[in-house]
Amino acid sequence: MSYSGTAEAPAPQTPDAADARSVRVARNIVVLLIAQAVIWIAGSGLGILLPRFFGDANIGRLTFAYSLTGFFAVIILFGCEPYLAREVARRPETAPHLAFNALIVKLPLMVLCVAGAVAFVNVFSYPEATRRIVYVLSAGMCLAAVGNTISATLQGLERMTLTSSAAVLERVLSGVLGVGAVALAGMGLTEYALILLATGGLTTVIVGGYFVRTVGLSYRIDMTVCRALLRGGSPFLLWSIALLVYATIDITMLSLMTSDQVVGWYGTAYRFVGIATFFPSAITMALLPNVSRGGVMESRSLIQRCLNLAMLISFGITVFFVVGASAIIDFLGYPAGFDHTVLLLRILSLHIPLTTFGMIAGVIVIASHREGARTKAAIVAAILNPLMNLAAIPYFEHVAGDGAIGAAITSVIIEVFMTSVMFALVPKGIFGASNINNILRSLVAGLAMAAGMLIAAPFGLIPMAALGGASFAITAVAVRAVSIREMRGVLQTVAQR
After folding, report:
1. pLDDT category, 67, cuts 50, 70, 90?
2. 221-239 burial string, b = 16+ CB within 10 Å, else e?
């Protein structure tokens, strides 16, 4: 059996088969959205409390630790996750064998990456508090590598309920225990990081036990498969490293060129923007195995519907952050230093529709085996980002006392570049005039939302959200950015399932 990543051309599909695929995608999207919504709520609880109890300097240290260990975590994963999901979707019978050998491939990478993270914070003489957090999160990234490998295999099998439930459990436990440790017991950053490690370990054991019991592992090292995994994952690894460099190098540069406070303001703004990706993430996770199995052109209608819905939601979230940024910070009661986060949040929220399109397009690119060109573009972005930040961060640090403004502007410019590349890589015929019309309708709904929020602004965040959300929903239906019939169909599908 070949593990080269090639597959036979999909057979023509009957209408019933296409409907069945749409039902599976709708079901998986709903499951993932429910999980992501709970994760968002639990994560928001921590997001609200941490800046209030830790302050901007400690939030800056935590943000840097996440960024550094996140970089090494990508190397550990070695791009195997999307490759696993795609190959398992095409050949489900290989799941136990592929998953076991993927774990074998990652063992030496774990040792090297933990050593690299520890060496970095010591060579550059970071404060002891920062070093301790990095040590704990380094152990966590190894646990995450095991969990992500299993989750990617289950994604290929379209068994996402358990992994989504485990993610919810982890976030709720870390939220409850983290709130108790920080707010009630007065514990610090290191104890908080240990709580994250413990909850991550628990959910990894749960997901691993389920996988072994229901799917199984081959427990046979196959060097041919290991080489195929390394070869197949390499384009995804290069993409992931380049993506992480151009997406997070600004945090490391800010930590070296400014202060912990500035990193804290930037990290807080990015936390809000990151939460907004829960919707496109759920769609792409459900879409990838389906498109990989059924073929890109055969999935054109399904892809277009997913894109239209994702872009509509992304415009709504962007407007909420741009118009309501100041009210959000006031409502959460952050210390005065976090006033700098308002402008950063407004700038970085422009990421959301760009990232949403890029994630949907990324599914098409992966399924079309065009990830090599995407990786080259990401490498260019990874080179441009630090070069631009070398000028932008010191300039805005001198002019405005906040180098993070320069990092935020640079980040959006790079995202525009990557979105343009992703659009060019999508095969002709996938996106059409209907998608452009839907984006224009979504913009109209966004403008209506902005008007509603501005009218309610004197009354605070909750009235702003209520009136803005109502204006957005009514206008979206009126201009046909979303179809009531399609939404009813989704609800009926959920009820039947």
Report:
1. confident
2. ebeebeebbbebbbbbbbb
